[in-house]
Design a protein that fits this description.
Number of helices of chain B: 7
Helix content of chain B: 25-40%
Distance between the termini of chain B: 33 Å
Shape of chain B: globular
Radius of gyration of chain B: 18 Å
Number of domains of chain A: 2
Helix content of chain A: 40-55%
Order of helices and strands of chain B: EEEHEEHEHHHEHEHEE
Strand content of chain A: 15-25%
Strand order of the largest sheet of chain B: 6-7-8-3-9-10
Structural class of chain B: alpha/beta
Protein name (chain A): ABC transporter permease
Oligomer: heterodimer
Largest interface: A-B, 22 and 26 residues
Family (chain A): Belongs to the ABC-4 integral membrane protein family.
Keywords (chain A): Cell membrane, Membrane, Transmembrane, Transmembrane helix
Strand order of the largest sheet of chain A: 2-3-8-5-7-6
Bound molecules: adenosine-5'-diphosphate, magnesium ion
InterPro entries (chain A): ABC3_permease_C (IPR003838), MacB_PCD (IPR025857), Macrolide_Exporter_MacB (IPR050250)
CATH architecture of chain B: 3-Layer(aba) Sandwich
Membrane topology (chain A): Multi-pass membrane protein
Radius of gyration of chain A: 33 Å
Number of strands of chain A: 10
Largest sheet of chain B: 6 strands, mixed
């Protein structure tokens, strides 16, 4: 019996029980599609996150209040304690004490309601310095950023994010318009170009005001000098590490802390953020893929189940084939191929559906799905192997049937 | 070319005139030229189901030579099918020896037994045992599939065998589209397509009406006239009388072994 002949016989068996075969194939299909999608979603999210973090700008160091327990940037109580002040930011701006730091942008963020012509919109109002645009690598679509003079004078000027402008005025070129924040009228001097969103916030829905203006008019009280984050720009890539050392030493000194372990702030670099986020998403991907893999296992058990049914249903046929001269290996091969056909069909269909879903879903769910050819190839391979592995037992059982017992069965 | 023609079997009046027309068969060991093709020596079979033992064959001795047409005759439950399963290498003895073409089949492994069944034996069962999903010619070619015959030749030989049994116009009919008699003739075509040494038929007419019975028995006559060894199992005397030799079985033992005078 040639392979072709075995294949023909097996195909006839699969084909003659079309519905049953389809349902079995469906089990494998779902498993394979699920694996391709979860792996793709995991990889896609990792890429999205690192792209977003990279968009913060290179050479960037981020100083946040609160202590850290590890150098990878996993921060305990991030942003909860107000240990950083504008004084820290001013100290870091010193070209003498911190020669490798070229830009300092402290941010004090408060969620406030903005009003323009009876339209209300709540957004994050950030107080910062003129260095903000260069440190955060933002450009303006309309108008200009506030000037050093305006900052020094605590002028009531505001730069809006593109979405904020849209929400308040229904248009983006709103330079010269007025916005009321906390009962004080601000003049819009500029609108930022769009930048998308990062993992935690929408970068286009913001209102930027001079730090002093925010401190005196919007925050007030004891926390008026507090900053939530200080963004530092190293003079160049190669100076990033020196900038880190300088910032660390300066802040420890300013806060009168002798040991790095007791630091009440955390300095993290973009790289650290990327690797932290990537690690988190990797773990998540592995976990989800495990779950998807389980569904594949269930599909495999379905193949085994159907193959056992197929064998017991055709016991008489097996007996007849043996009486006509079929050796055990030919019977085993016939059933193994049958199982492999089920597995392979499920694998190919699952891969097709997985890839189609990977190409269409991102438009709906808004995150990328990466289809890796390796994952697709592997899934199809795994599907065949599942068919074979779960087919071995039923096929061996068929091959071992004594011809006379098989012929006698009803 | 065929040793049978050079081997005048004395025990029975086999006509050997047309044997030379048969193609030569691989199963013709020189050593057996003089010996019987089938030989049961003190053959016993005890079925064991759980703690219950049943002795279905009580040590029988039987020799059948190439070209013979033997009926194994006996009442229901006498052990006829047991004999047929042993002769067809579908089951094994629990005592004694079965020599097929001079070889003790106990020495053969599963794969060799499969090859023996494929090359030496053509089965005809009471219940036809056709695969209902396949057309007649596909059923008939099955032994050739396992005999490594190329596809085109299989189709040719299957149609020739079906023509031989008078079903040349039914090649593509499925068993369900045929009468019992026609189905049994398909089964006979399947039994002879591989040109086996012998045809084993277990109650082949048990499920047939009298007309179909006559058709099938006539086929056996013709096949035997062409030199084919036939072992026909039946409990009907009328059917047994078509054979040239009748072996009477009762309670697992041979009670009479005679040349059919009729
Ligand atoms: N697999 C088996 N297990 C136990 N007893 C069996 C089995 N097959 C046949 N027998 C018994 O052996 C005896 C002979 O059976 P069988 O050869 O089929 O008889 P026949 O074909 O002459 O009717 C019967 O009594 C039957 O019940
Ligand atoms: Mg019987």
């Amino acid at each position: 019996m040639t392979w072709m002949e075995s294949f023909r016989t097996s195909w006839a068996a699969v084909y003659s029980h079309a519905l049953r075969s389809m349902l079995t194939i469906l089990g494998i299909l779902i498993g394979i599609a699920a694996v391709i999608l979860t792996v793709g979603l995991g990889l896609g999210t990792q890429l999205d996150v690192s792209a977003q973090i990279s968009s913060l700008g290179s050479n960037l160091l981020i100083v946040a209040p609160g202590s850290s327990t590890s150098t990878t940037g996993a921060r305990g109580g991030f942003g909860t304690s107000a240990t950083l002040t504008i004084t820290d930011a001013e100290a870091l701006s010193s070209t003498v004490n911190a020669p490798d730091i070229s830009g300092v942008a402290p941010e004090s963020a408060t969620s406030l309601s903005l009003t323009a012509n009876d339209t209300n919109w709540t957004t994050t109002v950030t107080g910062t310095t003129t260095a903000w645009t260069s440190v955060r690598q933002r450009t303006l679509a309309h108008g200009s950023f506030f000037t050093q003079a305006q900052a020094d004078a605590s002028a009531a000027v505001v730069v809006l994010g593109s979405e904020t402008a849209d929400e308040l005025f229904g248009t983006q070129n709103v330079v010269g318009q007025s916005v009321v924040i906390s009962d004080k009228t601000f003049q819009v001097v500029g609108v930022l170009a769009t930048a998308g969103s990062d993992s935690s916030s929408n970068l286009d829905d913001v209102a930027i005001v001079p730090f002093n203006t925010a401190a005196t008019d919007l925050v007030g009280g004891t926390s008026s000098n507090a900053v939530s984050t200080i963004y530092l720009q190293a003079a160049s890539d190669t100076q990033l590490s020196a900038a880190y050392q300088e910032a660390d030493a300066l802040l420890l000194n300013l806060h009168s802390i002798s040991s790095t372990d007791d630091a009440d702030f955390t300095i993290s670099s973009q790289d650290a953020l990327v690797s932290t986020a990537t690690a988190v998403y990797q773990t998540l991907t592995i976990l989800l893929t495990g779950v998807a893999g389980l569904s594949l296992l269930v599909g495999g058990i379905g193949v085994m189940n159907i193959m056992l049914v197929s064998v017991s249903e055709r016991t008489r046929e097996i007996g007849l084939r043996k009486a006509l001269g079929a050796p055990p290996w030919a019977i085993r091969r016939q059933f193994l191929i049958e199982a492999a056909i089920l597995g392979l069909s499920g694998g190919i269909l699952g891969a097709v559906i997985g890839v189609v879903a990977a190409l269409t879903l991102p438009a709906v769910i808004g995150s990328s799905i990466v289809v890796s050819p390796l994952a697709v190839g592997l899934s199809i391979g795994v599907a065949i192997i599942i068919g074979l592995v779960f087919g071995v037992y039923p096929a061996t059982r068929a091959a071992k049937l004594a011809p006379i017992d098989a012929l006698r069965s009803e | 070319m065929n040793p049978v023609s050079a081997n005048p079997v004395s025990a029975n009046p086999v006509s050997t005139h047309s044997v030379a027309a048969l193609p030569s068969h691989p199963w013709t060991l020189e050593a057996d030229a003089a010996g019987p093709v089938i030989e049961l020596i003190d053959a016993g079979k005890t079925y064991t189901s759980g703690t219950i033992e049943f002795e279905a064959l009580k040590g029988i001795n039987l020799a059948i030579h190439e070209g013979e047409y033997v009926a194994i005759m006996g009442p229901s439950g006498s052990g006829k099918s047991t004999i047929m399963n042993i002769l067809g290498c579908l089951d094994t003895l629990t005592r004694g020896q079965y020599r097929l073409g001079g070889t003790d089949v106990e020495e053969l492994d599963e794969i060799e037994l499969a090859s023996v069944r494929n090359q030496q034996i053509g089965f005809v069962f009471q219940g036809f045992n056709l695969l209902s999903s396949m057309p007649a010619w596909r059923n008939v070619e099955l032994p050739l599939v396992y005999g490594h015959v190329p596809r085109e030749e299989r189709r040719k030989r299957a149609s020739r065998a079906l023509e031989r049994v008078g079903l040349g116009d039914r090649l593509d009919n499925k068993p369900g589209e045929m009468s019992g008699g026609q189905q049994q003739r398909v089964a006979v075509a399947r039994a002879l397509v591989g040109e086996p040494t012998m045809i084993l038929a277990d109650e082949p007419t048990g499920n047939l009406d009298s007309v179909s019975t006559r058709d099938v028995l006539t086929l056996f006559d013709e096949l035997n006239a062409l030199g084919r060894t036939i072992v026909l199992i039946t409990h009907e005397l009328e059917v047994a009388q078509r054979a040239r030799r009748i072996v009477w079985v009762k309670d697992g033992a041979i009670v009479r072994d005679e040349v059919n005078a009729a």
